[in-house]
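INTERNAL AUDIT FORM
Audit reference: QA-55
Scope: verify that the stored structure record matches its stored sequence.
Auditor: D.O.
Record contents follow.
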Amino acid sequence: MKSFSNKVVWITGASSGIGEALALEFAREGARLVLSARRREELERVKQSVGLPEDQVLVLPMDVTQFDQAEVHAARVVGYFGRIDLIVHNAGISQRSYVRDTDFEVYRRLMDVDFFSTVALTQAVLPSMLKQQSGHFVVISSVAGKVGTPMRSGYNAAKHALHGFYDSLRAETHDDHIRVTVVCPGYIKTNVSVNALNAQGEQYGKKDANQEKGMSAQECARQIVEAVKKDKKEVYIGGLKETAAIYLRRFFPSLLFTAVRKNAPE
């Protein structure tokens, strides 16, 4: 039996990368899908690729930073499918710039996209989950949510914030049978660095070498779905180098800080 048969799974940032791969993976597991991102044409492409019946996929274009529309979008999903079983907070944007050079508005943008948008959508979805006494929040953080690195100060900060918020939510809603899985990918082969913000808030436009050599989005999605099946509270996905850094941060922080400094980009 398919693990997510007839479950309603809402994925933000579903038009490419990890989000698109998750749409395919959840579809294989029998889920009904809600696909959200800003580009409708890309969402329609993903809808066609998942191979589900027309009425089993809702394309819902949205800008996650329009916080006042979060409740409207949640109501539309509930109105269409009758419920929301799982939401994957995958929409996000990275950064490639030094603190000394970065415009303050870049930090606002990073926090809006990577942190506040998830809070707004979570608050919009939560009442329906509480009413049905079930639900699952899957939050795509990053190894950067555990380990701060150069040229990603705002991105690191936003991802760190996700852990604090969702650890609290997990504790508050445990008795309501609502689950939270926070996912920390390392280097995944996507366009995250290409689409990152530079010091002026423009597109960075370059693919990092580590990203290019990273795990495929498809394998990352497979591991995420497996973690969700097992109700993992937090999961680290990627190569040994990235995931080892998390344990170094916990047990040998001085060693980790030295390694990060010495491997900083020029």
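Auditor finding: record pair retrieved intact. The mean pLDDT is 95.
Action required: none
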